[in-house]
Amino acid sequence: MSEIAQREGFIWVPDDDIDLLSVEIDVDANDDEFNNMIGINKASREWLDNQITLRDYCDKLQLHDVLNPYELVGEFLGHTELIMRSGL
Amino acid sequence: MGFRELERYESQKAAYDNYKAWKALSPDAKKALYDAIPNIKTSRAKPIHDQGFIIPFNATGTIVTYFESSKLLNATQGSTAWADVCNALRTALAARFFATAAGTTPVIIKNPKYKFAKLSFTKKENFVDRTSRITKRGYKKPSSDTVSMPFGGKDMTDDFDTAVKDIKTKTGGAVAWVNASTSTVKQSYKFTPEGI
């Protein structure tokens, strides 16, 4: 079981894989954080569309203030592997 | 060398032990604990969807190209807990989705591999004290509703960045949505770009 599936007790299969990678902002966010949100979600799309490599993706996440990119990407990889193994 | 890390271990050990005990549980036992969280199974937002059309970004030419989507929010969501989230989202994206494919001999693409750009609104309210099923630590559990909706350009020449800027700052847009947060209601949003 992946970390995400363990927490929720079921295998979440989104229509669009970006739902597992994207981030949101709240009312406290300033303009920098808004730009980071857009940047992170754009980088996720570029990686999912195979336009950039995993290493470039992690670099971009760090550029946008994600301190430990592998934590985010690692959970994603674990979960997509589970989805593929389950044939969903 | 100081003892800060060791002191941190001592203070966190109880929660870490609880986490390890939870990890060792069977999938069924984990699911039972998850389902025991009040309202978690029944309160998931299930908005009413409509079929409609979206114009992709950075398109060219005079003949309008549409992608068909079945995930557009219906104008009438009833009196469900997530109805106000749906209505706010629909207002923020006004003119960026179409009920009918207008224009002279429009091109309509059905069941595309195209991934729609989406705006997603989240509303968290009614925070109650709960004990975590994983670490046994206390936290504030909100009732949370998240709704997302695909959007596209107003016309063929629109691009994603311009659209985001417009939706963010317009009346009833994304900034207005988060600014409606209060001490007891927390609202947030995210944009995700399109994929081809």
What is the topology?
The complex is a heterodimer of chains A (88) and B (196).
Chain A: H1 3-8, E1 25-26, H2 31-48, H3 54-63, H4 69-85
Helix pairs in contact in A: 2-3
Chain B: H1 4-23, H2 27-35, E1 49-54, E2 65-73, H3 83-92, E3 107-109, E4 117-131, E5 138-151, H4 160-169, H5 174-179, E6 186-192
Parallel strand pairs in B: 2-3
Antiparallel strand pairs in B: 1-2, 4-5, 4-6
Instruction: Give the number of DSSP strands of chain A.
Output: 1
Helix content of chain B: 25-40%
Instruction: Report the oligomer.
Output: heterodimer
Number of helices of chain A: 4
Main pleated sheet of chain A = none
How much strand content do the residues of chain B show?
Answer: 25-35%
Average pLDDT figure of chain A: 89
Rg of chain A, Cα atoms, Å: 14 Å
Q: How large is the radius of gyration of chain B?
A: 22 Å
Reading the helices and strands of chain B in chain order gives HHEEHEEEHHE
Strand order of the largest sheet of chain B: 1-2-3
How far from one another are the termini of chain B?
53 Å
Q: β content of chain A, as a range?
A: under 5%
Low-confidence residue ranges of chain A: none
Task: Describe the global form of chain A.
Answer: globular
What count of domains describes the coordinates of chain A? Answer: 1
Mean pLDDT of chain B: 91
Give the biggest sheet of chain B. 3 strands, mixed
Which consecutive residue ranges of chain B, at least 5 long each, have pLDDT under 50? none
Proportion of residues in helical segments of chain A: 55-70%
Tell me the number of strands of chain B.
Answer: 6
